[in-house]
Amino acid sequence: MGKPQTIDAYIEGFAGPGREILEQLRALAGEAVPAASEAVKWGHPAWVHPSGTILFMVSGHAKHANVVFTPSTREAFDADLADFTTGKGSVKLPYGRPVPHDLLRRMIAFRVREHQDDGVLWM
Questions:
Q1: I need a labelling partner for 38 at 20 to 30 A (CA). Which of 5, 56, 88, 112 fits?
Q2: Residue 87, helix vs strand vs coil
Q3: Do residues 59 and 44 touch, judged by C-beta distance below 8 A?
């Protein structure tokens, strides 16, 4: 089976807590940035600004989900992310731990602002 062509198909590929967290992240994205369109980029769900720039992506894994922003967005929230494993622009969300909705909303708002006001593109 190839890569999913839709976010629905991507999420359907997961069961249990993985699917639940991906559904929560999708709902959060729709609420936080309703002007963004959903797309599948590099096989993963992404939310795209009307200008065509990727704002952020999510991915599901065996024991966690990742939310991937630009490195500058992730770095702006380093203090808030002290209890999370992070990467270049990613935040690891372990299954079984509540999704930090408020923090992610603030990160999404920051990402939208940095793109619209500062012209920060995707990685």
A1: 88
A2: coil
A3: yes
Short-list 50, 47, 45, 26, CA closest to 101: 26
Q: Tell me, yes or no, whether 55 lies in a domain.
A: yes
In angstroms and rounded to an integer, the radius of gyration of the C-alpha atoms of the chain is 14
Which domain does 104 fall in, by range? 7-115
Here the CATH number for the domain that contains residue 79 is 3.90.1150.200
Whole-angstrom Cα distance, residue 39 to residue 7?
7
Structural domain count of the chain: 1
- Residue 92 in any domain: the answer is yes
Candidates 56, 50, 63; CA nearest to 90 is 56
